[in-house]
Amino acid sequence: MRIISGQYKGRRIVAPKKLPVRPTTDMAKESLFNILNNQYYFDDISVLDLFAGTGNISYEFASRGTEQITAVDENYGCIKFINETAESFEMTISTIKSDVFKFLEKTTQQHTIIFADPPYDFPTQEFARIPQLVFQNTLLEDEGLLIVEHSKHTDLSHLAHYSHSKSYGGNMFSFFK
Which Pfam family is an annotated match for this chain, by its short name (predicted)? Predict the structure, then answer.
């Protein structure tokens, strides 16, 4: 995995093989950030990275100038890796080791962008809980965006606040406003 753009453009990040993750592909990540680049000034936003895994998405935001980034994952190894990588790059990424759903039920902090990359084999009901909790608890700022990454075989278009989806190979991003 590599950082696509910004201060750390081209830097490779090698995660330990033992982490239970499936990082967003470089092609999908580049396409997503091309979309976001036209909507936001990265140095003016706050980002919440749910099911953060290796921290791939958090590093990309940090490389582009975002300073308010919170990464949430329940796996200690993932949190440790994100902390070590962020420290080595001198990135300001806060980490929280927690079950994402419990975190969403308790937090009151709002963000401009909330990115969620849950396991692709989640049942649709679990995917549905993400936007439900985000909007029920008013976790997005005005003009904020929830992005859920999932397999092209999962359809989230029936969920409340759904806006649209973009497909990149086997990856799909569903956008909620």
Answer: Cons_hypoth95
DSSP 40: -
pLDDT at position 19 is: 87
Average pLDDT (156-171) is: 93
What does the pLDDT read at residue 81? 97
- Nearest Cα neighbor of 24 from 52, 44, 65 is 52
Domains and CATH numbers, the chain: 26-176 (3.40.50.150)
pLDDT at 26: 85
In eight-state DSSP terms, residue 102 is H
Output the 3-class SS for 114-158.
Answer: EEECCCCCCCHHHHHHHHHHHHHCCCEEEEEEEEEEEECCCCCCC
The pair phi, psi for residue 126, each rounded to 5°, is -70, -40
pLDDT of residue 23: 80
* Strands (DSSP E) found in the chain: 46-50, 68-73, 93-97, 111-116, 140-151, 162-168, 171-176
